[in-house]
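Please describe our next protein:
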Amino acid sequence: EEIEISIGEDDGIKPGHTVVVSRREKYLGRAEITRVAPDRAVGRIKQRRAPFQEGDRVQTKVEIR
């Protein structure tokens, strides 16, 4: 299953990035970005704790290895 987000390559999003989806400080899940355009991106849902909806916040997930 996929999601489309309203940030993209112009915002530094690249294929392979992981984004975290939240609503009012509540973690909803995460997705891995598969395709990007200048102003949007599409990702494959990797985890979902609750349904995503328009207006949810998306942020990149920072992982230190």
Strands lie at 2-5, 18-23, 26-37, 40-48, 57-60. Residues 7 and 40 are 5 Å apart (CA to CA). The chain has a mean pLDDT of 92. The longest strand covers residues 26-37.
